[in-house]
Amino acid sequence: MGYLDLALSYSNQPPIVEAPASGGGLSQNGKFSYGYASSAGKRSSMEDFFETRIDGVDGEIVGLFGVFDGHGGARAAEYVKRHLFSNLITHPKFISDTKSAITDAYNHTDSELLKSENSHNRDAGSTASTAILVGDRLLVANVGDSRAVISRGGNAIAVSRDHKPDQSDERERIENAGGFVMWAGTWRVGGVLAVSRAFGDRLLKQYVVADPEIREEKIDDSLEFLILASDGLWDVFSNEVCETNNFFNVVYFPIPNTLLYSLTIFCRTQLQWLRKLKTQRSQRRNLWEKQ
């Protein structure tokens, strides 16, 4: 599993051009901008993917952003990256009932992924953390443990929940479906999978669902930005640490005075910090590899 981080904020600055591992963009109406960065660390292959997409739907400018953390290979994460947002914006109720459209799109994408995986012997899966901007609404949806955090009024607030098998409601759902949760280095579904919701994972599909949890936030002056990241970031930086200005400092004080540029530098800075912390915290889990 690689590390991937995407930061989203409002800006009226022009876009910049970056190398494939990091970059940024701007909506057509100039209301929001985004930056991203990714790294495979010491792994020979990258199982994390991201997607950034800005579309016009029924006269609305819509922003779609996602982080997809693969396990058992990259196939599932790459499939979700390619298909989830297309399935969402073509849903007939995308504008009128966005939450139900998100749920339908997640489950339809999962169903189609499972069909496409029939010819493969290895069982691949993926988490997803997505942010959908429609007008003055922000909808965050997730399955798995890739997390979304907003900065509102200078405070970091988690707007998604990590789906872990030892959570009481998740464990009850799994056991009611005939599955079990056991300790194998960490709590795992069937002793295998360390997340309780995901795309794919055909052999555990009866217990590991792709039903997203969705949270809606109003976009106003107090909402400064949003971060989507895979667990390589959140295993090191707690929400409490995020509440200190050190973590978000580069966004609060952009250098040079261009917010979009600072978002990209911010994302790249997190990669550098993670590499240093990996050495400093050698007793902790490898940030770029699964347990």
From TrEMBL:
Gene Ontology molecular function terms on file: metal ion binding; protein serine/threonine phosphatase activity
Domain PPM-type phosphatase per the UniProt entry, residue ranges: 33-291
PANTHER family documented for this protein: PROTEIN PHOSPHATASE
InterPro entries linked: PP2C, PP2C_BS, PPM-type-like_dom_sf, PPM-type_phosphatase-like_dom
Top-level taxon in the UniProt lineage: Eukaryota
Keywords, alphabetical: Hydrolase, Magnesium, Manganese, Metal-binding, Protein phosphatase
Keyword match Transport: no
Cofactor(s) needed for function: Mn(2+); Mg(2+)
EC code: 3.1.3.16
Protein name: protein-serine/threonine phosphatase
Family per similarity comment: Belongs to the PP2C family.
A Pfam short name: PP2C
UniProt enzyme class: hydrolase
Source organism of this protein record: Capsella rubella
Keyword rRNA-binding: no
